[in-house]
Q: What sequence folds into this?
């Protein structure tokens, strides 16, 4: 068995620690995810699902416990280093795509490469390869607000992949897609998984939860992992 | 790498300004207006002092005036005999320099009475004359403004009132060149005798004595000697006149810049407000940038470059407009404040000079406060947490 | 003499620098009191955010401080047009006892801001932020310096008396030509030049060796020599090089070379000399960071870069400053 890519041990996350409005969002969560698998996180809103996703996504460190993502301990890592680690290891696909409508498709896709100091030409080359793969090359110079939902989804995927991260996090990726587009999305995810990426999805959509490629479903309830 | 990163961030800030062009344009227009005001003032001052400096070149090195009770009064021509003993003095020329209020025109005219023959810089004055010749008896050379006021079509004659209201008739013998307008615009130049007659000054009295010196480095020593010999006089050197001009212009522009600082202050508040009031879209944008790997410092750099680009564009626009205003519209908005010692304002041609120092001065008065005022709003926007993109 | 655009601009600039660093220092107090990397409280998160604010503010302050330094010299040149006896910046800077001191403090202020920024970038290259407390103590120390700057500058401006024709009969005379003369007495030119070029050569050799192999002792030596060299350069520029720029043997002014008449060559001269000195000093100063902070590798890399830059800038400086001198001496022209 390979060493886990994501390893959480007794992870707690408390918001507004020490204050009246203190919220314990995660409580003693332990979890291990091996590289190259596809996992689905399930949980109602307020269950701590987003918090768990944020910790796995290196957005913030846990309040206590050990969280090792792609070989790095997140505990007490300053934001600056979390960001560096995040951009090298995680590709995000958001529920509302979070594509900047004023920028073109190409600009949106290459956005993560800008603070890395990669020159425009190199950025474009990388993006073109991905756009070809996801067949949105013809939209490269369109403003993102002018393209369809399915295309937006693929722009989001391309942006998540542009820095070639080992982990893809997709938050409710099919919530705004119809059945056909959702199927197409899962097909892309499956291909990525075959290429060695670790994929973590959150969803209520049966199409995802019952998808053959999803190897494991992790249910969260009241800040703890729920074993049915 | 870091350099490439900054280039990328500049690239992004340009597109960001363009995407928010209405908001950025608003800031730029107001900013350019503030810069325009300050720069116009600064350029006008500079141009005026340059003109003053150029025209003063022909002024006498030392002027001796008689003082009584702290006020200037007529000086006897005979005083010059006292000075003859001082070595180093080249010439001493009695002069009448006074003002004549023209009641019907409501204008103040400068009267300059000199004997052109006895005057070493008679040639200089001659060169300043545009047309005609130096005045003989009952003649006068007029500055451009004075000429426009006094001349009547078809006649070279005009008359002025003596203090006892009798009329003194004079003939125009020439006019001064427009290039010497700052000093000659409202001037009537006539012989010493005519000026004495006009003001009904007693025989042998003038307003001041002009002293020229053979060696310019001796001016301070000779001035001290004159002051010692004639204790009831005030001795003024050309350098002092120059410095006084400079100081007066300096005060006025300093005062004006303090006034304009209020304009600047209101702009700063406006800029602060514009920079702080982030729309939900802008907040969303920053959280997206941050979650996909932009650092807080990258967003701060982005805001810095945006501020710098906005300032640079506004500065160039404001500064260019100020140049046009001063050079081609003769600083129409401010000249009354900066010149204004006579009702007749010289319509002189101002030639602003662009030099690094003045540019830097205006830059420090405008761009620096703007950048400083936008740091905190920039930081506020940069610390929007990345996880807000997830919800 | 506050009623003057230059005075207004200088005061405004110093005030902005002071306010920015005061805000930064406020963060310093809370960081020194409450910083706790083990905590996940809101306060810690806020403090982490505030460290970004303070470092940005100091970076702005440094930029403005450099501007203020340039503006101060240019303003002095402008003041000379209204002050009795002053013909150029030297005259107005020596018109009262504050002028030269303010100039020195401004320069020191810019250097200190620069050192702080170096400290900051070294600090944030480690996940543990090992220099955090040191950095904020240093920031608190910076504040009094900037305060001295603005107070003395205000005193300087307040004590400038413009030379105006007074209405009383007393004559205010410029103190003649004497006052304006030279900042420094005459010195044996030959010896001074030997010292100048000797020190420059020594620095070049030291730089060469240090770039190949960093050595703590040599770095300190290098830093000290740089300190001396900055002093020697000022003297050499004032008493020797400047008069070759002006092509006037009796005009020794270290400031007029900044004027457009001389093609702003002064900016190239000081713009290479001061940064070169900064890097030379910084390379030595960062050597005091103890190895236990785990910054050894970053410090070493910075020192190497700093030594390289100081050597490059030194070369440029020597070329620019010698240009007119060499031209005059060996070509016999006046060099422009």
A:
């Amino acid at each position: 068995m390979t060493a886990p890519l994501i390893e959480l041990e007794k992870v707690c996350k408390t918001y507004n620690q020490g204050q009246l409005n203190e919220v314990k969002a995660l409580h003693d969560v332990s979890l291990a995810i091996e590289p190259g698998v596809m996992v689905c996180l399930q949980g109602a809103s307020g269950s701590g699902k987003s918090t768990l996703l944020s910790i796995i996504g290196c957005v913030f460190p846990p309040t206590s416990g050990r969280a090792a993502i792609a070989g790095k301990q997140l505990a007490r890592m300053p934001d600056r280093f979390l960001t560096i680690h995040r951009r090298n290891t995680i590709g995000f696909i958001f529920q509302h795509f979070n594509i900047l409508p004023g920028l073109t498709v190409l600009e949106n896709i290459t956005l993560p490469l800008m603070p890395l100091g990669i020159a425009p030409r190199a950025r474009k080359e990388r993006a073109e390869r991905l756009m070809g793969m996801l067949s949105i090359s013809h939209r490269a110079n369109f403003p993102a607000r002018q393209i369809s939902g399915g295309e937006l989804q693929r722009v989001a995927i391309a942006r998540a992949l542009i820095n070639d991260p080992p982990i893809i996090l997709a938050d409710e990726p099919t919530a705004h897609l119809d059945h056909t587009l959702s199927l197409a999305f899962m097909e892309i995810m499956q291909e990525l998984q075959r290429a060695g990426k670790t994929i973590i999805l959150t969803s209520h959509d049966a199409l995802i939860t019952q998808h053959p490629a999803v190897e494991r479903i992790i249910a969260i309830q009241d800040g703890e992992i729920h074993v049915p | 790498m870091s350099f490439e990163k900054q280039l990328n961030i500049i690239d992004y800030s340009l597109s960001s300004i363009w995407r928010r062009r209405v908001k950025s344009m608003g800031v730029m227009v107001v900013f350019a207006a503030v810069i325009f005001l300050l720069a116009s003032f600064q350029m006008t001052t500079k141009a005026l002092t340059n003109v003053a400096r150029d025209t003063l070149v022909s002024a006498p090195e030392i002027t001796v005036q008689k003082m009584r009770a702290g006020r200037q009064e007529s000086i006897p021509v005979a005083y010059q005999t006292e000075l003859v003993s001082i070595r180093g003095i080249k010439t001493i020329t009695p002069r009448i320099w006074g003002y004549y209020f023209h009641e019907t025109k409501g204008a103040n005219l400068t009267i300059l009475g000199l004997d052109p023959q006895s005057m070493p810089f008679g040639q200089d004055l001659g060169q300043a004359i545009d047309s005609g010749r130096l005045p003989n008896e009952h003649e006068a050379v007029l500055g451009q403004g004075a000429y426009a006021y006094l001349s009547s079509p078809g006649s070279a004659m005009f008359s002025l009132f003596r203090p006892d209201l009798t009329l003194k008739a004079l003939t125009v013998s020439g006019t001064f060149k427009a290039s010497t307008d700052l000093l000659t615009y409202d001037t009537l130049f006539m012989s010493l005798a005519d000026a004495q007659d006009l003001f009904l000054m007693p025989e042998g009295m003038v307003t001041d004595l002009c002293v020229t010196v053979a060696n310019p480095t001796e001016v301070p020593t000779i001035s001290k000697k004159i002051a010692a010999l004639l204790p009831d006089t005030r001795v003024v050197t050309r350098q002092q006149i120059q410095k006084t001009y400079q100081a007066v212009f300096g005060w006025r522009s300093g005062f004006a810049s303090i006034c304009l600082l209020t304009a600047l202050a209101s702009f700063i508040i406006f800029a602060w407000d514009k920079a702080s009031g982030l729309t939900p879209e802008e907040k969303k944008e920053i959280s997206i940038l941050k979650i996909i790997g932009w650092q807080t410092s990258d967003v701060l750099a982005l805001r810095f470059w945006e501020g710098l680009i906005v300032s640079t564009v506004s500065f160039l626009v404001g500064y260019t407009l100020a140049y046009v205003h001063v050079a081609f519209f003769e600083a129409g908005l401010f000249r009354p404040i900066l010149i204004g010692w006579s009702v007749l304002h010289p319509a002189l041609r101002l030639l602003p000079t662009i030099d690094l120092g003045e540019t830097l001065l205006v830059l420090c008065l405008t761009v620096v406060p703007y950048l400083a005022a936008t740091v905190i709003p920039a930081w506020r926007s940069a610390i929007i947490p990345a996880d807000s993109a997830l919800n | 003499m506050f009623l003057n655009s230059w005075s207004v601009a200088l005061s405004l600039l110093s005030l902005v620098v002071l306010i920015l660093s005061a805000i930064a220092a406020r963060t310093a107090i809370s960081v020194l009191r409450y910083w706790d990397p083990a905590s996940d409280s809101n306060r810690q998160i806020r403090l982490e955010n505030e460290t970004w604010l303070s470092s940005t503010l100091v970076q702005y302050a440094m930029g403005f401080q450099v501007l203020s330094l340039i503006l101060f010299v240019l303003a002095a040149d402008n003041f000379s047009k209204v002050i009795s006896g002053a013909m150029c910046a030297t005259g107005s800077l020596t018109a009262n006892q504050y002028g030269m001191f303010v100039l020195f403090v401004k320069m020191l202020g810019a250097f200190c801001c620069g050192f702080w920024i170096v400290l900051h970038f070294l600090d944030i290259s480690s996940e543990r932020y090992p220099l955090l407390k040191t950095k904020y103590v240093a920031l608190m120390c910076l504040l009094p310096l900037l305060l001295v700057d603005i107070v003395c500058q205000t005193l300087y401006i307040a004590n400038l008396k413009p030379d105006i024709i007074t209405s009383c009969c007393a004559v205010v005379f410029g103190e003649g030509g004497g006052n304006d003369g030279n900042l420094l007495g005459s010195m044996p030119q030959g010896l001074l030049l030997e010292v100048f070029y000797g020190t420059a050569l020594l620095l070049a050799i030291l730089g060469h060796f240090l770039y190949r192999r960093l050595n703590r002792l040599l770095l300190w030596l290098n830093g000290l020599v740089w300190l001396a060299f900055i002093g020697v350069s000022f003297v050499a520029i004032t008493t020797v090089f400047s008069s070759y720029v002006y092509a006037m043997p009796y005009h020794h002014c270290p400031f007029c070379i900044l004027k457009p008449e001389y093609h702003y060559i002064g900016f190239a001269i000081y713009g290479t000399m001061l940064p070169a000195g900064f890097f030379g000093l910084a390379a030595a100063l960062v050597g005091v960071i103890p190895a236990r902070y785990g910054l050894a590798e970053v410090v070493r890399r910075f020192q190497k870069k700093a030594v390289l830059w100081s050597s490059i800038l030194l070369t440029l400086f020597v070329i620019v400053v010698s240009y007119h001198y060499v031209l005059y001496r060996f070509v016999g022209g006046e060099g422009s």
